[in-house]
Queue: 2 jobs
Job 1
Amino acid sequence: MSIYADDVVNFTSVLKIAYNFLTGREYLQKKKSKERKTLISVASGFPDLVFAADSIPVFPIRMEKFKLNLYLLALNTATGLFGWDLTTKLLGIARQIDFLKIVDNVLNDVISTINKRYNKFYELAIQKNVSPKFCFGVKSLYGMHLSKSNNCDCSLDFTLRCKKYNDYLKSLKELIPNQIWLEIPSINTQDEGNALEIMITNLKKVIQELESISGNIVTDNSLKKQFRIGNQVKRYYKTIIYDIGNSDFYPCNSATFAEILALLTISFQDYNSNAQRYLENLSHLVKEMKMRIQKGVGMDVSNRPRILLTPIFNGWEPKAQEIIHDLGGRVIYSDWDSLGLLEEISVSKNSDPIEAYAHFLLNSSKKGLFCLDNYESLINSYKNYVKKTKVDGLIINQLEDCHIDPSCYELMKNKIRIENKIPSVSIKFKKIGENLEKTKVTLKSFMELYG
Ligand code: SF4
């Protein structure tokens, strides 16, 4: 039996997020054909401007047709009759009397369904002769667009300080002719005031382009309304990472907890195309987690070292969390927090929402992988993050063919081990499922450091 079984079967909010992810295709079809909404491709957690233009942000994997796990299929039928809460309760009882063995792997199935699709995108990109120099993340993003981006009206692209990523963005033009680019100026080379001015000008231009493609006006009110929803989403997300993630008792076993964080990492990219619904699911998730802890449902994790595994948003080996769990640790995934994307955007009465968003983007561009043009800042950013989260160890997910020089990863690993005084290791990642044996060996000797 899967280690996830009992944990997830009654976790209504987790099931809802998974369900909304896997049934995105039907949802998006309805939005486009019946409600005439504009679909805009986004990635990496930047959906707010699209929502403010009354359009639908789409991380393109969600336009794929997924085979629903039987349990989720049963939920789909039964929720219409009984509602989500009662349905999950009923199916939970059915499972206990061994009636529904199919629920055993529900969340594990969802994550592996998504990951298998990522590998397919990667292979599709290779078949279409995409540059072999691209990393897994860029190749699978390109494959994702090859597969279904013709359903999108436009793509909203935020330039990162990675040449490979920006080259990929340029190549997207062949697949989605309508492109809106948001350049985030580098603050290392310019003074902050100047960078802010450029950022505001760039944002205004992007908003105009969004208005013209969607036919909707973006107002201060629509921006602030969206930022308010986004801020609440971020607050709940942080509660899960910090309050629950740091506690000694989890509402589920530590592998399931990592699976939930992985699902949030994937689904946050477009807030599941419906920010209000995503907010409600996250609020429900936090409530459910707290309730389970109160009732003593879950797992004592006080003796398990907390290990940050990062960055994962461009692809990682999802078995890593299970390996660490089996070796007595617990994995935390918190990419969006380390990249500054969980910072709130000011919505105070007198604030200018465009300026507030410009500040938010500039601040995040100084963090994690977003400050790639300067390896020293990159390393410092990770050092600070490790200090802030007080984790007991760090696993660096080192993507092959990454634009970052491998010596930078090596330096980062050593600096964090010496200066933050925690064990650190890097695992090489090329493609999901590849190098698994080597990863196991590396993680085994890493976990031995905790005695
Ligand atoms: S920084 Fe590395 S992992 Fe990230 S997009 Fe660029 S090449 Fe890929």
Note: The chain has one domain: 5-448.
Job 2
Amino acid sequence: MDKYVLITGASSGLGKETAKKLAQEGYRVFAGVRKQEDKEAVEALNPNIEGVFLDVTSDESVNCAFEKISEKTDKLYALVNNAGVALAGPVEYLTIDILKKQFDINVFGAIRVAQKALPLMKKGDARIVNISSMASYGVFPFVSPYCVSKRSLDMFFNSLSVECKMPELKIISIKPGVVKTPIWNKSLDECEKNMEFLCEEGKKKYEKEFAFLTANARKNNDKGLEPAQIAQLVSKVLRVKNPKLSYNAGNDSVFARLLSFLPQSFVNFLIKFGLKKRMGE
Ligand SMILES: NC(=O)c1ccc[n+]([C@@H]2O[C@H](COP(=O)([O-])OP(=O)(O)OC[C@H]3O[C@@H](n4cnc5c(N)ncnc54)[C@H](OP(=O)(O)O)[C@@H]3O)[C@@H](O)[C@H]2O)c1
């Protein structure tokens, strides 16, 4: 098969698993990584994988990556916007730097890469797959930066799909629930570090909820879907003739979608009530 796919954030988790799966199926995969050791590790998975250095927050890095890609091909079949981080904290005390970082990677990064990819997608059938999240549906307390970033990602790309003068381009959002990947521990380490920088007043106000939620979220490392299940879904949306605009992956994601049909005031009540109950208040 001579179909080229670029996957961002392919050093671990869903990106790495997807690179492996697509390469096994015969796609030629450009796997976005940021470290030499990750390039070597991902290339060792399959000869169809070529690691490319790609930091989605840097114009220079993205330009260099596309120079490398253009040396190999002038036609990209698919871009999988997968690179992402999850940042959290109480809105009342969130620093603007945290918000900027969240958006730089999850939203502006995906747009930056897509803008470079689109000229290579002009000829014939092409696809952009965004790894969004069930968080895109809304309220998960203390994870607002992540939720808002995923909703924004979906909205930006939905606008693109309406505006774009490429009738054969298909843009698909995959919204996984919890998947067993390193994202949980990485994010929680960062969140706990950020909590340390909160003022005394902020710590006092939210310490209890935050400690409870972070302890719970650490357990997500060991539960939820396998990354291979998301890789399988990406493979499917690249293969089927008419993929849907949006896919939920996992019962928790389906549940989040169903909740989103209810009135916001009722959803907020349920979430507040549920949190208090689980915390034994
Ligand atoms: N795991 C879940 O439960 C879950 C659920 C829903 C959605 N998702 C989404 O799935 C995607 C992949 O996450 P994951 O769970 O597989 O976590 P992961 O293993 O932590 O993977 C995140 C990837 O993003 C890369 N990345 C971070 N910042 C980057 C940057 N500035 N430029 C380029 N790459 C960058 C990381 O590279 P480095 O190794 O170089 O940092 C890593 O390869 C994310 O968009 C996440 O929001 C995950």
Note: The longest strand covers residues 169-176.
